[in-house]
Amino acid sequence: MNKFFKLTSMALVVMTILLLSAGCLAENTSSRAKEKKFPAFKTVDLAGNAVTQDIFKGKRVTVVNIWGTFCPPCIGEMPELGEWAGQMPADAQIIGIVCDVSDKNDMETINEAKRITAESNVKFVNIIPDEGIMRYLDGVEAVPTTIFVNAEGNIIGEAVIGADVPKYKELLTRYLK
Question: Domain residue spans in the chain?
Fold first, then answer.
């Protein structure tokens, strides 16, 4: 009888662990689905102009290039991104997020980002992350990372990690079809 009780107790413990872990997996899956929406934000660009998530509304697809002033591949692709921005179809745009600017008072990094974009002839909007964008950036593995966002603020497709402008162009063409 004692052996039966031990086996039954162990079986209940194992079943409880399995049920709890299945619940956690379902919870994790649903939270990943929520991450397909770019976070709402209210911030400024490098020039101090106000920028919100409404920036996505005017275009079918926005290419969002997440970069840092410390990153040689990010800086290296800037001239090509600047040139491409001027050649994009009317229903697309590119914006940058300068991931290493801590806030709008981080003038040292902002000035470095301004220098890099000016030397690269970059005319597209580059924004300073607010708290919502910073939380999103916590999940970014490396820079540059480029994502694609539709007019409703939904992230479409997969992120491109690393400097690969030809790949960005290929994906933009696919997402605009």
Answer: 1-34, 42-176
- Residues for the chain: how many in total? 177
CATH of domain 42-176: 3.40.30.10
What mean pLDDT value characterizes the chain? 85
Closest CA to 53 of 112, 139, 136, 164: 136
Percent of the chain with pLDDT over 70: 80
Does the pLDDT of residue 42 top 50, yes or no? yes
Say whether the peptide bond before residue 144 is cis (omega within 30 degrees of 0): yes
Contact 126, 45 (CB under 8 A): yes
Q: Which of 157, 146, 151 is nearest to 96 (CA)?
A: 146
